[in-house]
Design a protein that fits this description.
8-stranded mixed β-sheet; alpha+beta; 8 strands; globular; 164 residues; STM4215-like; 4 helices
Length: 164
Amino acid sequence: MAQLANSAVKTLENLLRAPTGLANGLAAVCIRSGNELAPLQDSQIVAQNISPDLVERSTGTHYPTYFLYCEKLNNTLREKFRQFSGTATLSVEVRVTHDRLEHLASAIQLYVDALTETLDSNRGDWGDGQFYTGGYQISFSAVKPGGKHYIQVAKATFDLQISK
């Protein structure tokens, strides 16, 4: 079953890295808001569940960064005679850092908007028995010391329907 979690995260990673993924969502958000944000590199989309403190101590991270992982698998056996028929709860942590507090809140909101724009435009069949019906939950953490003085994390959680 752990392979299903890895497969779901890999599918999400490929979707976000595609030209029609986060890059497209970020461009749309920048046009709507009138703000300019630096384009994302592939190294800023990471398929790992790792705390911000550990990332800063162990690797050189370039912010903003999107961390993708599967929180849980729920095999409800909706479809009889399938090995797995249920949901994978996926999470995307958007981590943004800035040296000024007043710029941090607006920056993280724009990067979260780019993520939700991407999810909204990719509802439907993700292939390999995975289907995203839409909907997500966003939570924002408090600002903490880290990164370029301050870091804030927003977490988007959503369910991916899987039938294998």
